[in-house]
Structures are given as C-alpha cells and as structure tokens.
UniProtKB/TrEMBL annotation:
It comes from Natrialba swarupiae. This is Extracellular solute-binding protein. The lineage of its organism: Archaea, Methanobacteriati, Methanobacteriota, Stenosarchaea group, Halobacteria. Pfam families: SBP_bac_8 (PF13416).
Length: 397
C-alpha cells in the first residue's frame, strides 16, 4: 500500500478526518495522510473535473449522491467491493448504498460517510416575535402565517434559484415518491411534482421567501442578523450554524420539517456524502485510501467523531446508540439531537440513476419558471420529463 495519501474535505469535516488520520498513522508507522480543506462548491467542482479528465484526483474524495451515479457510469470511480472486510457493509444504513452501488448490482464504488435527515432549524427569537411555537408549525402554510407576523425585512426562509432542484428532491422523497421506476424509467410527471411546485409558488407569492444564494457570506450574515426564521436542511446544518454564526448560542432550535399539506409525511433527507476513490489512482494508493476510510467509518467510536467534531450525522448505524445524541446541546439551548435520530428512522429510500444530476438541473429550471409566472405548477412535470428524456434517452413512466 502507498505510504502517503491525501483527502479532500470541506465544511466542518476537517477536524474529524484529522483526528482519524492521527489515530491511523499512530497505528501505521511511516504513513502520511494529508487532510486538505476546500470550499463545498470547490470540492464538488474540482473533484468532478479531476474524475472527468482522468488526472488530479485526491486519494479520497467526499461526494454527494447527486454526482456519484454519473461518475460510476463513466468509469470514474474504483470498485472497492473486493477490498471490504467481512461485516463492513453491515454497519451502514441500507439506503445509503444506493448512490454508490453499480447499476444492476455491479460493484460498490465507495463507503457511506453521513446521512442528512431533514429537520427545520428555527430562530427562537423570531418565533417568539411572531407569537409562534414549534408545535404550531405543521405545514408550509403555517410558515406563511408566521411570516405575516414578521417585519418587512425578515423572511421565513431563503431558497436560492440554484437550490430549487434539490428542494424538489427533498419534497419528492418526503412524499414517498420515486424519481425512477425499478426499471430505470423517469417518473417525475406526477401529481406530487405539481403539488410541490404549487407550494413553492405559494411561498414565493406570499413574500416569505428570500432568494439570496445559500451558504454565502451574505446568507450567513442574514441568519446572524435574525432575518431568516428557518433553515430546513439536513442534519449537517447543525454543525454549519454553530461554526458560522456568532453570538447565536441558544437562539436556534430544531423541529420537524413541515409537511406540504395536513397529514403528509414529515421526514426526508438532504445530502449526506460518500467516500469515493477515483479509478485513475494506482492500486497501491486506492488500497491505502480504502484501508484508512474503512478504519475510520466502520469503527463506532472513531466514526462518532463525525458527530462530535464535525456536527454531521454518521451513516454508521452503530453510532446511533451513543449517548451523545441524547446530551443537551448548549448551542441549541439545551435541546438534544434525539429528533434527528427519530427522523432518520423514517426517511424513505430513494433510487438513483446516472442521469440524476441532469434531472435536478431540469427541475431547477422548471421551478424557477413557475416562480416567475411563466409555467403553471401542473405543467412542469410533463415539460421536465420530456426535456430530460430528449437529452438523455431515458424511458419515461
């Protein structure tokens, strides 16, 4: 195995990976592991570029399910199924394998790192200002009511145009829908897509939705200045808020994400990454990189560092019995992470396809057209399905 490897990380992840690297190198004399921190968008784009060009990829990449199916289909990721220790596969959440499994069950192209059960992070002072409590919020229409009680320069939420496709996926999964049939046919021309578009339009027209680009300095500044009452996102947002906001300790809490309508499900997933290994690397480098990743992610105590050091929710199910999740969190005014555990049990599975990024991009375009009044909510499913099918050759349901 290689004596030196590097890992591209982003966000709040470096401390956890650095701690794991320290333990690994202490047990493996002469091995060097370099943990490199990139911006989130930079990490995604540079890794995609490296895989596509066949050069420049790190020993370990950390990527989301939006992109990994396409990388697998193009031969950009290494099949690590033959390297896995007995029982290694069993410790992870079953549905996290979907974006890193080969199609037709052919190979495994990474290890699950974290999942991202969706919860609504809410600004306590803004809820108090509006006279609302978390239990008052059951649907997105309750958030519209909350927004009516806020000041003119305050918003319930901020959804940037480039995130609309991801938001649609969250809602679609929350509704229990599948983007692809078991045979791989595209399945987005549905009543659920029309319903999601209608709810988004209602939020937009109620003027409770800001459009600032998410995860930018101005977006975090607005959160810090009490301009956004909620952030509905994956569990990893807990670490991002604590890491990025100043003077907000105790001012944020968590509650179930709203349903689209009364009686609908209130569990979904937003993101969560997998650890992947580019096929362009030589065998010795892949072997060392995989050995380190399995050392980190399959060991319960070490993997818990993703929660304690990085503020993300591990995909290793054996970590869920750790007492950390029940401990009061000072940043969230004593609220624990037990809600995230509850939601994690209810997240519906989702199928993936090599053209998944193409689908999300098209839904982003179509939903923006709805918000701008150019397309009716009940029309975008058919338009998006036809457009994606024409570009990709996918069959349609």
């Amino acid at each position: 195995m290689a004596d030196e490897i590097n890992v591209w990380t982003h966000g709040t992840l470096p401390p956890a990976w650095e701690a794991a690297a320290d333990e690994y190198t202490a047990e493996n004399d002469g091995v060097t592991i370099n943990i490199e921190e990139l911006g989130f968008d930079e990490n995604i784009s540079q890794y995609n570029t490296a895989v596509a060009s066949g050069q420049g990829a790190p020993s370990i990449g950390i990527q989301e399910g939006r992109d990994t199916p396409g990388m697998i289909a193009r031969g950009g990721l290494a099949d690590i199924s033959g390297m896995m220790s007995d029982g290694a596969e069993d410790v992870f959440v079953d549905w996290k394998w979907a974006p890193i499994e080969g199609f037709d069950g052919d190979g495994i192209y990474g290890l699950p790192m974290d999942t991202a059960p969706v919860v609504t992070f809410y600004n306590r002072s803004m809820y108090d200002q509006a006279g609302f409590a978390p239990e008052d919020i059951e649907t997105y229409y309750d958030l519209i009511d909350l927004g009516e009680e806020l000041d003119d320069d305050q918003f319930v939420l901020s959804w940037a145009p480039e995130m609309l496709g991801i938001r649609w996926e969250i809602f679609y999964r929350q509704k229990g829908e599948q983007i692809y049939t078991e045979d791989g046919a595209l399945n987005i021309d549905t009543d659920a897509t029309a319903e999601i578009a209608e709810v988004m339009l209602d939020l937009y027209e109620a003027d409770v939705m800001d459009r600032t680009d998410e995860f930018t300095e101005s977006w975090f500044a607005a959160l810090n200045d009490d301009r956004y009452a909620t952030v509905t996102s994956g569990a990893w947002m807990a670490g991002a808020l604590e890491d990025s906001l100043e003077g907000q300790d105790g001012n944020w809490g968590m509650h179930r994400c709203p349903a689209l309508h009364d009686g609908d499900a209130r569990a979904s997933n937003h993101g969560g990454s997998s650890v992947v290994f580019a096929s362009q690397l030589d065998d010795a480098e892949i072997a060392r990189a995989y050995d380190f990743a399995e050392f980190f992610l399959t060991d319960t105590e070490r993997c818990m560092m993703l929660g304690t050091e990085a503020g993300v929710f591990p995909a290793n199910e054996e970590t869920y019995s750790d007492s950390f999740w029940e401990e009061p969190q000072e940043y969230f005014d004593g609220q624990s992470y037990e809600l995230i555990l509850e939601v994690a049990e209810e997240v519906p599975e989702l199928r993936y396809h090599e053209e998944h990024a193409e689908v999300l991009d098209e839904m982003e375009t179509q939903l923006e057209e709805v918000l701008q009044g150019n397309v009716a909510p009940n029309e975008i499913g058919a338009q998006a399905q036809e457009a994606v099918a024409d570009r990709t050759g996918l069959d349609t349901a």
